[in-house]
Amino acid sequence: MLNRPTQFDPATLVQHLWPLIVYGFAVLALIALMLGLSYFLGQRRRDAATDEPFESGIVSQGSAHVRLSINYYLVAILFIVFDLEAIYLFSWAIAFRQTGLLGFIEAAIFIVILLAGLIYLWRLGALDWGGKQQRNL
Amino acid sequence: MSARELHAILPLLILSGGILFLLLQVSFLRSHKAAAATAVITLIAAIAACFDVARTLSQSAAPIEVTGLLLIDQQALFFCLLFLLAALAIAVLGFSYLQKRCDSARESIPEAFYLLLLLVMLGAMALVFSNHFASVFLSMELMSLALYPMLGFAVTGDLSPRLEQMYSLESGVKYLLLSALSTALGLFGMALIYAACGALDFGGVAAAVANLPRTPSLLLSGLTLLLITLAFKLSLVPFHIWTPDVYQGAPSPVTALIATVGKGAVVALLLRLFTELELFSIPALTGLLAAASVASMLVGNLLALMQKNIKRLLAYSSIAHIGYLLVAFLIGNSAFGNEAVLYYLVAYVITTLGAFGAVGLIADSALARTAGSAGEYVYTTTSPFQRDFYRGLLWRSPWLAGCLAAMLLSLAGIPLTIGFIGKFYIFAAGIQGQLRLLLAAVVIGSAIGLFYYLRLLLTMVLREPQAPLDSIESVRIAVSGRLLLISLTGVLLIFGVFPQILIDWIYTL
Amino acid sequence: MTPFSTLPAIIAILFCGGILAWLSERYFNRGSRQISLISLSVAAALLATYWPHLTDSPTGVWWDSVQINWIPRFGISFSLAIDGLGFLMLALTVLMGLFGLVVTWRDIRFRRGFFYFNYLWTLAGVVGVFTAIDLFLFFFFWEVMLLPMLFLIAVWGYEERIPAAIKFFIFTQASSLLMLLAIVTLVYLHYSASGILTFNYRELLNAQLTPGNAYWLMLGFFIAFAVKLPALPLHTWLPDAHTQAPTAGSILLAAILLKTGAYGLLRFTLPLFPEASAAFAPVAMSIGAASIIYGALLAFAQQDMKRLVAYSSVSHMGFVLLGLYAMNTVAAQGAVMQMIAHGFSTAALFSLVGAIQKRLNSRDMAQLGGLWSSLPKLSATALFFAVASLGMPGLGNFIAEFLVLLGSFDSNHWITAIAATGLIGAALYALLMMQRVFFGGLRTPEDAQTRSPTDLKAREFLALISLAAGLLLLGLRPQVVFDIAQPAIARTGTLHKKAPTATSQISSPKLRLSAWPDTDHRRGNSP
User: Fold this and answer.
1) How many structural domains comprise chain B?
2) Residue C131's CB: how many other CB atoms inside 10 A?
3) Which residue ranges traverse the bilayer (chain A) (predicted)?
4) Is the model's pTM score more than 0.90?
5) What is the predicted pLDDT for the residue at B445?
6) Nearest neighbour of B507 by CB, restricted to C111, C177, C519
């Protein structure tokens, strides 16, 4: 309840925030300027190659709509999951001395849960590359 | 965190432990039966823990607050017990569903169903206990996140009919998108509430609301947005659009889960939110809820009239039933209102479980009968979810049809069933609150509702079954499913004829 | 309270008999009819134990009553009681149940056990309705009798049975929701005013209501009963339900279930809301008169014999409504008599139509004719009941209609005069039916199996003759019925008389609207 904001009052708010607002408008103006200048000053050509993707000077082959193997996504999501969990460990590491034994126990529980998840994924073959898991357990 | 607090959240701890254990168990012992057994044991242990905590609570009489996030009181424990029992039933239904559809020799993992079920229960129970907007959000997300894969679970069963897999996937994706949208709105609402009150725990918000001279629009918009999220989860009109598709596509046990536990936990939260924050005194909110309630009763019942698919019909009827429940909710902060909500919710949970359970078990049996050649199963002539499939069911398998008929009558609110007592409570509550408009809607809605329940009921007693194929032979369902249905019907009749038992329980727990 | 009491025993016997009948048919493939017969006879015997009350002047108003706590949370108890009116209705119920069973002994072939289960449960529900004096219990039985009836129509009915069953159920159920609303409101208002939470009829009689509230509550009850009766704008379920129901079902519907509506008016609506009913009486009487004329007209226009009889019921029940709201003893006595006599005559007519349908496979009057030559016994009985139905002096119906008209002439000349023209209509349709079906040259439908159908069997004939004897008895010695019904009617009667003065005396009680009590101070929880 300490940092309770004061009543919502547009007048004072504008007073506090006007540099931010000006900054926001400045950003918008700059972008508009850049886009507008290139639109008006830039040369326009319509060649056969205009709409082609630029691939370091090499003519691209085939369609860009390639079906990626589902395994890529699996790996990606696993990475995100375990990587995200690491963030919590960082924050714990910073406050390691303050949290003391209790914090250590809680972090240990957290890591054990992660470990159990990892074992589950590993045993069910989510970490195996190449299609669905081959081994039947 | 004292030992007393740890003891108070014992049911949650047991569930978490059960989930962890099940993870490891599945890793090293791939067995559908063993996984189901572990889940059931965990649920039973959690139920026992609930009783244990309730005993401690009844000694000290004061609710126990755990770290400012959770508040364990008797009413919350009652809700938890109800949901845990429902989860037990769903585990049984799920077992029957998966056993038919998962070939363990092939690449399906039916065990994951029980993991997800326990996760949903963890979320639901934390939601019931939560006393802080942070825990509300966390537990609601936990529940929803576990529900998404469950809704699409038919894909896992490699023997499921192709069409069923498609529908199931559709239902999961639909729920994911819409639920994410509604949760975002609710999160925004919480932020606005924080901006207005400077607190996120219910007590702090309540104090801030009490101190404010009049309700500021910032707080009001925050609460309204939050209400929209809850209305979405309760599938109140006009936030009901997802309901029929999701209910129809999902595997029947999951439909039962989302209709009972998913909605019930939100009702519990709504009850605590409105009581703790004293929101009944804000006419704008109660007005919104009343409008949603009337709309749900009328729209739900009217749309149900058109349905030929039983699951869609039950989905619309569940929309209407939450509308009825809100009538009891809306009479304000009173002991009787609480009692009425509790009773109606019990009636709703039992009946909905029974109805979806019966429908699901009948469909499972139809699947087994039509064993496909090599690949997945296919249903024969008609889908077992169409009304035509139920022609003359009473003559084919009287017990099953009798159970389903009891569920339908309870939904329609006919005496001898718990649904009637529930409706009686709604009437009594509405009369106490003098909610004339709502009562009129209840009467009209029930009258409309009669028609489609009755039509289904009479389809079951039709004399000449037109489908002369193999559907004439009796529907065979597993013993566990049969026991479940019969016990649900028994409970429904007992509480319908002797409601005093349940009323006493509501008070003594 | 004695451990064995007759009233719950009657209900229990019918319920258990129903279950036994079902089981016996399921496991032994026979015996359901015998079990039904036995349980109905036992019920009749139990009912006959009240015989002594008929002769010696009863000490109290209620002959016998039972009260067991049921849902103390709401002050609801399982309380049954019987008085003269209740006894007459119970006797009618059991006798008609027996008649319906005997006369259709061989009709049911499909799922016989389940049929008799429903048959007995309907009767049990009706017995409950006629004896319950706790309003919640009354409503409970009111609904319990509907469901089995629904199945009777929907499973064993004729060609259009499903829509007819749905229509029947929705009409009665929707209107009874209004009644439930009215009951709960009444209890709530009584509780707010007096602090006593109870559904007991005897205590609610003392409820003090503001006139406005009373009027609305009265309407809630009235609509539910008027649907059942049926009164004019709410009657549309009846022709379909009666026509499509199997013969035994039609007998139950016409002879017994319709009477529950009239009974409800007499037992609940009039005594509970005397002033409001008095204010409403002209409307109710007009509805009654309109039903008489309308029913007669439509009966006259029917091709289908069963529909004709069904519409004649609308007409006859209009007399009951007229008599009840005439607000005097003579008319009320007439109404009670009409309930019984109509039960007898209509049950007989329905069974005769059923017999014709079974023999000739048609009940279309255009296809039938001159049956007298081939079915003399059946035709003679039909003639008897047709003239009974049109109000031949010497039979019960005549006494009833005469008394109703006599009594209501006192209260409203014009409505009575109009209603009396309905008698002409009755003569018209009854005689027309006789003329078209039984007289003239022999005509039978083309698809009838045999040109010379068999006449009434001894069993059917005996059942019908006993009904005829009953009607004759009612016509010649009506005083017995009047004496039995007198106390119950007198009670409502005195209330009517008191009504005008009562309104002025009651200073409208200050309503202290309060919450339903918490469970702590509920009744009947003291250690």
Assistant:
1) 1
2) 26
3) 20-41, 72-95, 101-122
4) no
5) 92
6) C519
A124/B109 touch (CB, cutoff 8 Å), yes or no? yes
Domain assignment of residue B218, yes or no: no
What the block records as the tokens of C70 is: 């049921």
Which residue among C162, C169, C178 places its CB closest to the CB of B443? C178
Out of A7, A116, A137, closest to residue B23 by CB: A116
Neighbours of C330 (CB within 10 A): 21
Q: Which residues form the domain of B427?
A: 282-509
Pick out chain B residues at pLDDT < 70: 1, 103-107, 157-158, 368-382, 464-475, 509
Q: Which amino acid is at B237?
A: V
Q: Does C523 touch chain B (CB under 8 A)?
A: no
Neighbours of chain B (3+ CB pairs under 8 A): A, C
Q: Dump the DSSP string for B362-423.
A: HHHHHHHHT--SSSS----SS-TTBGGGGTTHHHH-HHHHHHHHHHHHHHHT-TTSHHHHHH
Q: Could you count the other beta carbons within 10 Å of the beta carbon of residue C526?
A: 5
Q: What is the mean pLDDT of residues A81-92?
A: 87
Say how far apart CA B368 and CA C382 lie, in whole Å.
Answer: 57
Determine which of B457, B493, B506 to mutate to test the interface with C (most C C-beta atoms within 10 Å). Answer: B457
Q: What angle do CA C139, C141, C147 make, to 5 degrees?
A: 110
Contacts of C322 (CB under 8 A, 6+ apart): C285, C288, C289, C292, C331, C335, C404, C408, C415, C416, C419
B313 belongs to a structural domain: yes
| Chain C interface mutation, best of B397, B451, B461, highest count of C Cβ atoms under 10 Å | B461
Q: Above 60 in pLDDT, residue C507?
A: no
* Helix H or strand E encompassing C66: strand C64-71
| 3-state secondary structure at position B189 | helix
* d(CA C516, nearest CA chain B) in Å: 6
The answer to the question of residue B143 being in a domain is no
Angle (CA) C34 C36 C39, round 5°? 110
Query: Any chain B CB within 8 A of the CB of C72?
Result: yes
**Which CATH number describes the domain made up of A70-123?**
1.20.58.1610
Which residues in chain B are contacts of C77 at CB distance < 8 A?
A: none
**Other C-beta atoms lying within 10 Å of the C-beta of residue A45:** 7
Tell me the count of A-B CB pairs closer than 8 A. 39
Q: Give B 10-39 residues with CB within 8 A of chain A.
A: 20, 23-24, 26-28, 30
Q: Are B422 and B347 in contact (CB under 8 A)?
A: yes
Closest residue of chain B to C69, computed from CA coordinates: B500
In this prediction, residue C523 has a pLDDT band, given cuts at 50, 70 and 90, of very low
**Which is more confidently placed, B333 or C400?**
C400
Tokens at residue C192, please? 């707010």
Please, are residues C137 and C67 in contact by the beta-carbon 8 Å criterion?
no
Please name the residue of chain B whose CA is at the shortest distance from the CA of residue A123.
B27
CB-nearest to C144 from B415, B463, B503 is B415
**Touch between chain A and chain C: 3 or more Cβ pairs under 8 Å:** no
Among B424, B462, B461, B428, smallest CA distance to B446 is for: B424
Residue with tokens 């108070």, as numbered in its chain: B8
Is the minimum CB–CB distance between B195 and chain A shorter than 8 Å?
yes
- Pick from B413, B397, B416, B417: which is nearest to B481 by CA? B397
Chains A and B touch (3+ CB pairs under 8 A): yes
> CA end-to-end span of chain A, whole Å?
55
